[in-house]
Amino acid sequence: MNERSWERLGAMSGLVSAVLLAAGIVVVPPMVGLGATSTTISQYLANNAMRVRISALLVTLSVLAFLWFVGHVRHVLQRAEGGVEAFSPVVFGAGVALSAVAMVAMVPAAALAFLAPSPGGVGAGAAIRVLYGVHVVAGAAVELLVALFTGTAGAAMVRRELAGPWLGGFGLLVALIGLVAGITTYLGIGGGAFMLVMGYLAFAAFLVWVAVASAVMLYRPEVERAPGAREVFAH
Prior knowledge:
Helix content is 76%, strand content 0%. With 235 residues, it is mostly helical. The radius of gyration is 19 Å and the shape is elongated.
C-alpha cells in the first residue's frame, strides 16, 4: 500500500468516526439537566437503558476510529513541518487525551443504564446524582479538549500546513464553541437547558468539522501537496 492509499485510509477513519459519533448522539433522547433530581435521572435511565448503552457503544467505536484519524493528522502535519514539529505534537496529544477522556466519560452513564433495568434498579439516592454529575462534568472536559484539538489543527491549517485556510478558520470557530461550552458546564452558567444546548452544539460542530476535514483529505491526500509545504518557523 503506497503513501496515497494510507492517507486515504486515515482520512476515511475520520469520516467513520464522525458518522458513529452522530449516530451515538441521535440514538438517545436528550439527557436530563445536571440539576435534575435523582428520581428524574433514575426514571430517564430506566426508560432509555438500551438506548444509552447503544449510544455509549457507538461513541466508544467513534473514539477508536478517531484515534486512527489523529495518528493520520499527526503524520501529515509532521511531514509538512519538515521535522520541526510545531503543531503536530500538540494535535496528537490533544487528540489522544480527548479520546481517553471521552471513553471514560461514557462509563458512568453506561454503568447506570446497565443496572437500571435490573430488579433493584439504580435507586433514587445521592449516589446516582454523583455518578450522573461525573458523566456531565467529564463531558465538559471533553469539550475543552475539543477546543484544544480543533484550535491547534485549525491554526496549522490557517498556516497552510494542512488542508486549507478556510477549514482552519472553521476549526478555530469550533474551538471557540468548545471552549465556551466547557466553561459554561464547569461553572454552571445559564442553567441546565443552556448547558445542554451548548454541549450539543459543541459536539455537532466538532463532528461536522471532522467529517469535512476528512472529506477534503480524502479527495486530495496531503502527499500531493507535500513538496509545496513551507517552513513552520521563519528564520
